[in-house]
Amino acid sequence: MRGKALALGLATVMAFGACGDDNDSASLTTTVAPATTTTLSQIQLDEQKANRIVLTAADLTGFSIDPPDPSDVSPEFEAAGNACAKNNPLWVRLAKPDDPRGAVSHFSKGDLIGVQSSVTFADDDDQARTAMADVSAPSFASCFSNALAAELRREPGYTNVSVTTAKLPAMTVGDQSIGYRSTARFRVQGTSVTLYVDFTLLRVGRAVASLDHYSAPTPFPEAERVRLAQVLAGRMAAP
Predict the structure, then answer these.
(1) Which of 9, 115, 168, 208 is the most buried (most CB within 10 A)?
(2) Cα separation of 6 and 196, whole Å?
């Protein structure tokens, strides 16, 4: 359930190469090899920066690093989540292991708190603005509630499932941002469970990122959400 709660279905090593051979002044015959320069494509540069942006263990004291597990996401939930974001290609590929322009990181603290960060790059600012508009549409919240509720109902033993999604408090971070909280309530083996799934979507220039966290039985601290969003936005704005 943990991976399914975190995966929003919107779905998530910097070096410039230059090499050459030095002249060998000690040899009888001096041979100068032509200098070669490896120029990285913009896609490669984007991927490298994405890996610098996502959260690291140093950002989350007391959390453990978790490897991503795409198998936790059902195709139905992925398709439904993508539809909520109008199948925008940036959100579709965000947090995917094969995103050529992106990166993703996962962390957890016990079984009840988890954090994921993911980032990718658009071709230009206008594409990134469109992606933010697609997840800011009035229909998004109810659409995502329905998608998450349907996903939880696929879990054997989950009953009395209900999900509501509302906007989180606005924050001034990056060029654009919007946050949502899905509150899922259900019963498992006769026990009532409340799960909070929060996600904050950010844009800086042509970069878009998602800060996702789940927690139970209490919400993720708002001050910590703001701090982590500021960390991501700061790195997105850096050269």
Answers:
(1) 208
(2) 10
Whole-number Å distance between alpha carbons of 30 and 235: 46
What is the three-class DSSP state of 106?
strand
Confidence at 9, pLDDT banded by 50, 70, 90: very low
91 phi-psi bin (left φ>0, alpha ψ -120 to 50, beta other): alpha
What confidence score (pLDDT) does residue 10 get? 29
Instruction: Pick the closest to residue 148 from 74, 59, 230 (CA basis).
Output: 74
Q: What is the CATH number of the domain that holds 57?
A: 3.40.1000
H-only helix segments in the chain: 2-6, 42-53, 75-84, 89-93, 125-135, 140-153, 222-237
- In degrees and rounded to multiples of 5, residue 141 shows phi and psi of -60, -50
pLDDT tens digits, one per residue of 42-98: 999 999 999 999 999 999 999 999 876 655 678 999 999 999 999 999 999 999 989
Segments forming the whole domain that contains residue 139: 2-237
Region 93-113: mean pLDDT is: 94
* Distance from C-alpha of 220 to C-alpha of 168, rounded to nearest angstrom: 11
